[in-house]
Amino acid sequence: MKNLILMPSFIMITIVVYFTMKSAIKQRKNILFGVTLPDQALSDDVVLKMIDDYKRIVNIFTLVIIFTGLPIAFINKEGLSVLYLLIWSLVVAEWLVR
Fold first, then answer.
1. Has this prediction a pTM greater than 0.85?
2. Which of 1, 2, 23, 72 registers the highest number of CB atoms within 10 A of its CB?
3. Minimal CA–CA distance to 33: which of 48, 12, 45?
4. How far apart are the C-alpha atoms of 64 and 59, rounded to whole Å?
């Protein structure tokens, strides 16, 4: 039960990661994935396939971070669960950079 205090951190990190990754595919003017593209490139089949692949990868990545973070709820030792949350969050941050 004591680990339920850590669960909001786990949930918050997961939500922030998901919406941060999803925001990369929102087209702002001609910018997609942080790159400025010509107007006709935004409707190109290769770019549309890249967007679909990225959406699938975001969903898979979100599921992976959820399943790797869930053990926090089942670890009985407080110190160990805090250590697990810290390591988990650092690994998730590292995955985001790559």
1. no
2. 72
3. 48
4. 9
